[in-house]
Amino acid sequence: MTDRIDTVRLGPGQDGPEVGVQGFGAMGISEFYGDTDEAAARDTLDAALEAGVTLIDTADIYGNGANEEFLAPFVAAHRDEIVLATKFAIERDPERPAHRGVRNDRAYIRKSVEGSLRRLGTDTIDLYYMHRRDPSVPFAESVGAMAELVAEGKVRHLGLSEVTGPELREAHAVHPITALQSEWSLFSRDVERSAVAAAAELGVTFVPYSPLGRGFLTGAFADAGKDLSPSDFRRFQPRFTGENAERNAALLDPVRKIAAAHGATPAQIALAWVQQRAAVHGLTVVPIPGTRKRSRLAENAAATRITLTDAELAALEPLAGLVAGDRYPDMSSTSAAREV
Ligand SMILES: NC(=O)c1ccc[n+]([C@@H]2O[C@H](COP(=O)([O-])OP(=O)(O)OC[C@H]3O[C@@H](n4cnc5c(N)ncnc54)[C@H](OP(=O)(O)O)[C@@H]3O)[C@@H](O)[C@H]2O)c1
């Protein structure tokens, strides 16, 4: 693909770094979505740069550090061409593989950043996110500790993930928050309860994660339980299993119809939708679809050029309300759980 996507500046006053209007989610390269062909994944990263997809998203928890390590050679080769984002806060216990703890305390943050810097092979992280919120730790401590990292030059900008609107405002008062990364897609719209409005008001860039509904919105998962490899965590995702998967697959008919009208794919319509839905809220967004295939990278980047009509947006409007199953088996650490 020779056509580069448009760019936007991150953060309040849009005075942050310039990135392509679509970013790249690296998570699936190391974990969660089945086996990865490493050479193809590296080629996909190259395709991202060629397309102008420059916001590269990882986290210390993805593959337990392996995703950051995987990215290191790419980071070394292209440090000045990319905006590198990673995250802390989710802690694994080697004794209990399925267990996830959330840590927001200062000591943990200071230790985590050193690990990410080492694995990524860089001396500065462009955008450092708190991956999950532990409500027992005040933002004065957590965002305060993140702000220390900015002052020390280890981190350039701060982000949060899965926080509510009121939490975003509170955190932003401690130190400016550049980006909010939460799940937002045709099938997952709980962020529109409060987080979206707060981000728009504060000028915080919204980074929608899983904008393809973890692949479901591409239309590939009518009977997910059967088709997925044993290492694919979607086997246990409420939306991908049993009757829910069948019901949810049927919801994609309007997406397919609209895709056909545009000569596009359902994935592209899902990506165009989140971009346009954000514009309705007066919000800058940089969705970060994840893929391990060059052809899909180009397909996803091309979605930034699609404009849906009002009638198409209206046809897509009811979908999220009809989805069967939560977006996680355990919703307790999501913003939605604190927003009832
Ligand atoms: N902050 C958080 O808590 C959080 C949570 C989840 C994810 N994230 C971030 O968000 C990123 C994106 O989310 P995600 O990876 O969960 O989900 P996603 O982007 O919604 O979907 C990824 C899935 O869709 C497939 N796919 C991508 N483009 C496609 C296309 N054009 N046609 C058909 N299939 C396509 C991918 O398969 P292939 O790889 O085989 O192409 C993969 O299985 C992650 O990589 C991660 O960086 C953040």
Automatic annotation (TrEMBL):
Residues 1-20 are annotated as: Disordered. Pfam families: Aldo_ket_red. CDD domains: AKR_AKR13A_13D (cd19076). It is an enzyme of class 1 (oxidoreductase). Its EC number is 1.1.1.-. PANTHER family: AFLATOXIN B1 ALDEHYDE REDUCTASE, ALDO-KETO REDUCTASE. This is Aldo/keto reductase. It comes from Streptomyces roseolus.
